[in-house]
């Protein structure tokens, strides 16, 4: 009993490690073209997913089946988690690629070798590892702990080595006898030769699980809309996604053979329709309706996992089957990149905003394999010639127990986070003065290639800003990290949040963080006939009884002249139709005095925070109906590729009779201390700050009186 329990637990942890590696490699590859806005050639490291192709060759298969080589591959897979501690991004990418290759070789060999019970536990361990990953990410607010800190990385690395050694020694006595019996192992199952169809379906299922269920907050971000009807918040409603995935796995334990033939037939058709309808609902419905469809899709996805995995490992050609699966997986991953980053990749114009085609293809592949495969759950496939039925029953009980243990841990984490976050909200004191800032922070990746939300939170906290807009913030895509910086920063800082537009709209995202409640907001997709979809949000914030409008926007690139022209017209109209008190924070890729700048100023009826600052290109702050108090630019210090800009304003008591400040000073002693910017960023500085610290620069800070 105890060895079986240890086997389920160890395989689950090793499954978690495999998922960690598969999740981590795409964002690491994407980091490099993110720097250059073009392909770099390092995309070739995606071939790490194709390592099982070597197992098609007989000598390589026999070599990988050798107990010493397999042990080495297991230890290499676990050891490559240490890539997090690599000195630079290039070395980390190389180590990660080696880890992915090793993991897939181990996965292929162990899923097709050994007795039925061993293979059953290994496959279920991989599925439980996915649930474990989701539960741990909940406790780290959408981040994977193994890639979050050196301490967590070291702990998981140590436990991983213990699990790997336990598996090596527990299977070592039998490995020698079983190494050359892969054919017999496959024949113990309901074998079939259709490795191509099964491989494509399994790879598509893996990608679907990564793409939409890589983190429990993703469904909420696909369904999100503006305030007050935003749809379900990821915390706590991400818990329903976790429960949906768990119930899908539980449904898979139902025995198809125990249902009458007619019911089976209708159940199969119902299952296929459910998957198709729920995926369409997630794409085309809004807010709560889309979220409900996403939860149904979660149940469907995990319900078909055991059956498709069982059919997959029944293939007579393991190397071919796994290579085909990984080819489908990588192809779909690149298609996902092409859907959003189409302006920077060859042939992107043909794939722009085509997520519906990708999801439709995935559901087609899964549906065809589901409809044509044997209607048996995973253990039934393995128990064809097995005399270990009592052990199978025990293993199922352990699997169910561990599944609900992971789910319970995840739900507990959500509950504690929610309670803590609610206590932090609404702490803004009544005041007439407020500060607003804009920062393009490139999905929280610093200039060394590490995700650095902790550093971002420290910087934002030190600015003391009351309203923050962050450009390039939608990291919920699988090639960026499948995490949620908006939720993370909102909970860490105790700010109200607005995430927009929806992930399914193919933008790079805009995040709004406010110390004060957001009364209403609308998400906009700006006209982008040539370039990438440009997002904008218009909203109203309640500064303890004083309502101020904000418009935040991310324009297209410099090369897209028509896009920027149309976007400036739309945003200027948003500004013009806003209330008398409005602040604009935008990334408009145009110089001061340019056509687009003039359109915003004149047609939008706003003023530039500092019209004398001619050394700007991207970020701008404009306003109407409030009194300007100060303006600052803070260097990025390698935390991003862009500086922080912020401004301080005062809400006038009488909107019809106030006078704006028109005199500029750089000596903070000439203005009241309560409007000073944080001296932690130094003092007034001309020109760029090239030191690796956050410091005022570009002839700021300035104060107005």
Overall average pLDDT: 90
| Helix/strand class | alpha+beta
Number of helices: 20
C-alpha Rg (nearest Å): 27 Å
Number of strands: 14
Major beta sheet, specifics? Answer: 8 strands, mixed
| Large-scale geometry | elongated
The residue ranges in which pLDDT falls below 50 over 5 or more consecutive positions are 172-181, 256-266
Chain oligomer state: single chain
Please describe the structure with a list of short key phrases separated by commas or semicolons.
705 residues, alpha+beta, 8-stranded mixed beta sheet, 6-stranded mixed beta sheet, 20 helices, 14 strands, 12% strand, single chain
Structural summary, described in words:
By secondary structure, this protein is α+β, with helices and mostly antiparallel strands. The chain has 20 helices and 14 strands. The strands form 2 sheets. Strands 3-4-2-1-12-11-14-13 form an 8-stranded mixed sheet, with helices on one face. A 6-stranded mixed sheet has the order 5-6-7-8-10-9, covered by helices on one side. The chain is elongated, with a radius of gyration of 27 Å. The termini are far apart.
